[in-house]
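Hi support team,

I've been running sequence recovery on a batch of backbones for a student project. Most finish fine, but this one hangs at about 90% for roughly twenty minutes before it completes. I'm not sure whether the input is malformed or the queue is just slow. I've pasted the structure tokens below so you can try to reproduce it. Let me know if you need the job ID as well.

Thanks,
M.K.
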């Protein structure tokens, strides 16, 4: 959870740096999944929800998205972050958490399952993983 809180804090700081008034923020725990979001107003005053994804997750997804999709679904970091938010991608802190999450989601995970063969699983620096269910 420490790295997730760091990402969340960075998101709050970014909103503050851009002088966006924060309407609402939340951290919700779903098993090994943490969803972090900040709601800020757009230029017209509408509420906009911003999900927190690390820079590493966005860059990794942009670079390796073809492992999951035949055609690129994002070309810029902004498009990648929006896509990850739309499909409710998840960052987890370890391979065990990633496999547990996938198993809870209905994927058959066996002891001899090779994580490198799971196209929804994107390894990140520091032993973390991004899970993208397309």
């Amino acid at each position: 959870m420490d790295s997730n809180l760091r990402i969340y804090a960075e998101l709050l700081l970014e909103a503050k740096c851009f002088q966006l008034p924060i309407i609402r923020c939340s951290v919700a725990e779903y098993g090994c999944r943490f969803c972090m979001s900040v709601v800020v107003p757009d230029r017209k005053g509408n509420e906009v929800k911003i999900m927190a994804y690390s820079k590493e997750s966005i860059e990794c997804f942009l670079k390796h998205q073809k492992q999951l999709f035949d055609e690129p679904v994002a070309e810029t970091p902004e498009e990648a972050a929006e896509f990850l938010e739309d499909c409710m991608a998840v960052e987890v802190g370890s391979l065990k958490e990633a496999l547990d999450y996938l198993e809870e989601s209905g994927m058959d995970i066996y002891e001899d399952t090779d994580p490198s063969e799971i196209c929804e699983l994107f390894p990140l620096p520091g032993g973390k993983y991004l899970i993208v269910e397309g």
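--
Follow-up from support: It reproduced on our side and the slowdown came from queue contention, not your input. Confidence is low (pLDDT under 50) at residues 29-34. No action needed from you.
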